[in-house]
Fold these 2 entries.
Entry 1:
Amino acid sequence: MENNENILEVQHLKQYFGKHDFKAVDDVSFSLKKGEVLGIVGESGCGKTTTGRSIIKLFPATSGNVYFKGQRVVAGTRMYDDAIREEKEASKKRCEELAKAGRHDEVEKEKEHLKKFIAEQTEEKKKAKYEAKHCVRLYRERRARELKDEYAAKISAAPESEKKALEKELDKKLDEVSKENIVTKMQMIFQDPIASLDPRMTIREIIAEGLRIQGVRDEKYIDERVYEMLEKVGLVREHAGRYPHEFSGGQRQRIGIARAIVMNPELIIADEPVSALDVSIQAQVINLLNDLREEMGLTIMFIAHDLSVVKYFSDRIMVMYFGKVVEIAKSDDLFAHPFHPYTKSLLSAIPLADPNYEKKRKRITYKPSEAHDYSVEGPTLREVQPGHFVSCNTVEFEAMKKELGM
């Protein structure tokens, strides 16, 4: 689906755990266009799930920002503290050098510069925390302003007979915006369809829980929404009164999907939604997600291990290794021309139902110490060809360009 609007922007996201700062996600940046499916792949422990959970605010981010529909919803503030600490150390060295050279007037200027820098970073930190904490109210206010500006032009240009109708239309939309919760527009489908459903709640209670949290009290409306969602995911309304243990794995995952889409989300983070299911059921769930994507205009982050599934379902693929992004490209481009050695290693592990191919297939083992020489210069994410980004240093980048004949 072609669309120039970025619905999600992740900037330098970091998620560290424990006293010793285990780097589960380390400086991840990417964007997602409205209606797009981004597949995220990598071995277990590479940070795929943690990235998704940090975006949806299940984990408080250590550092970095996440913008959803132009509104900052996640703000990790350690980057501001790190910047202040680094600047203090650098400023101290500069002051010592200036003092040795007898340039005492410049020492005072340096101290003033540091004071100003600390004040700026402290203010940015406060702003980030405030925006993330009050993202729902700030988004509503921004949308209300945009609607008023949009309708002010329409009303002034409209003939007198149409102005009242436009004013009523504006009031209705402003009322809808005043109830809109930007955070609930992001929903997650969890990996384990058994553990993610409360065994003590009926399916009706599970699917309706989000609506109740948002303050919906109309039981008739709730029932109709639950039945509608059940039918949308291929179940029947009679299932509403049952409990999770009465369903198969595929049916439980459909219930998890119904729970997510009942909130009318715009972004779905699907965390390995088919990994715990039989192969035949996997295809059904993937096709269901595809249908819902078309019907509801969903944007999807699809986290998975199975690269063949990801290729079929995703517009773009992002490869992660040890908490970092090593390659991002369109699905066809990544499979046709992988650049990073780790991506090549993952692709070489895909089996095919062809005995002749399997006899010749060679597994590529990725060993970072042998594949790269980062002793002089470390890697950064660079655009090797339009839309194809690879983590590499200058030497590797030039070799990739040469490979492409550029």
Note: DSSP finds 15 helices and twelve strands in the chain.
Entry 2:
Amino acid sequence: MNIRVTIIVLVLAVVAGVVAIVKLRAPSSNSTTLPGSGARLLDPDAFDPDAVTRITLDRRTDAGDERSVFEKTGEQWWQTEPLRFEMVTWSIRMLATSAADLTIQQTIPRRDLKGDLSAEKLGLEPAMAVITYDTAEGQHRLELGRIAVGGNAYLRRDADGDVYVVEDRLHRRVFEASPREWRVRNLMSGVTTDAARLTIERGQAGQTVSLARISGKWRLTLPIETAADEAAVSRFISDLGSMQVESFVEDQPDDYTLYGLLAPWATITVETDKVDADGRTTTTRDAVLLGHAFDVQDAGRYAKRADQPAVVKVRAADVNALTPDPASLVSRTVVALPRQEIRALVVDGQEGRFRLERQPEDWVITLEDGSTAPALTSAVTGLLDQLTLPCQSVEIASKGAAVEGAYLGKVAVEGFSSNTVGEVTCYRRQRGDAVEIVFADGSGALRSRPLVNVPDLVADSFASTTPTGGGGGGEPILVEPVK
């Protein structure tokens, strides 16, 4: 055999060897349609993230196997297993969009899953996590293996299928965060300014504070019944609606006694009424229980919603905002009626009774004998200020309890419908070097302010001393009542 023939034989042998190797390495007939590098793992025409209505996530953790189920209601996602909890919609949607965006970097045929590339070593037997996406058209299942180097990770679609090397974004979302972290941290997000009733029960202190919206206005109903401070109640509702979970403690505890939640330190309940098109009223009830303090250094408390099993921790600042002194919720104005709606003031002072009545141009004073005179505008304005401007402080006393201080008199307030809308008793009280006036409306609420520019509750303080006719001498000009 000459050299030329030898070379040809060798070349043919090499070609035959290469062909044999290629055949051995080529995908089997069952995998000839495997997508190539750069292709989407999930066909965009078959998998739309916005069409996903249910996601089931099974994870292997150090504490054991863990299942979480998320379901979509309207546009909102909820965890439904192992408990019901509102979820951050963006966080759950990212589980679907991360899957939709996966592209294949490499395909490892199932026949090559051996040695260092065995399914067990790739974290796929058993899978480290399994995600199942449900849509109206069907189901999509992904088994997640371990994260590889270079920002990649292993994944397969079927238990005995081929393995794909994909970007690790979905894996990291599943492995590096607990589903707890995807929950809405706003513990009472359902509470809004539409609330109709509020109750704060301090179980260990034996104190209950209740408020109700009546004819559009908030009123305190316990521990006393009086007008509430609209701004203070609004702040309370806002604080309640924005109360944040600092951390999730235990989802389904066996014993709530450990957290002080069987006999709560405080329970806050909000009721909201909604009227449907047929005029029927539906009441929703949201309640949160506050238990033991976290520890001696941390005044935050364990808490849970009444309708959920999960125990969480809330911050000390939230606890303080949601357990206010009842007096801070009481209206600081002596009379709820705006001053422009006050038609008359009936004063019963220590020197007699008189009436101040608004006229088109000014105020008129009427004495007990029926005689009248122009009222001193500055004095009337001063009394209206005392009754309608916010007081400096509010106290809650036992209903009917004696009020400290010297009695000054009573003032009854009439609206334009001639009905008495309020009556207060006034006292002069000494507090250290300061002197203040205290108003008691009979409810148990005591409102006070410094005794400055407060006219004495006597007729001489309110009758004008400016002559308007034949009189003189600076004395009040009184005229006979009209017959």
Note: The chain has a mean pLDDT of 85.
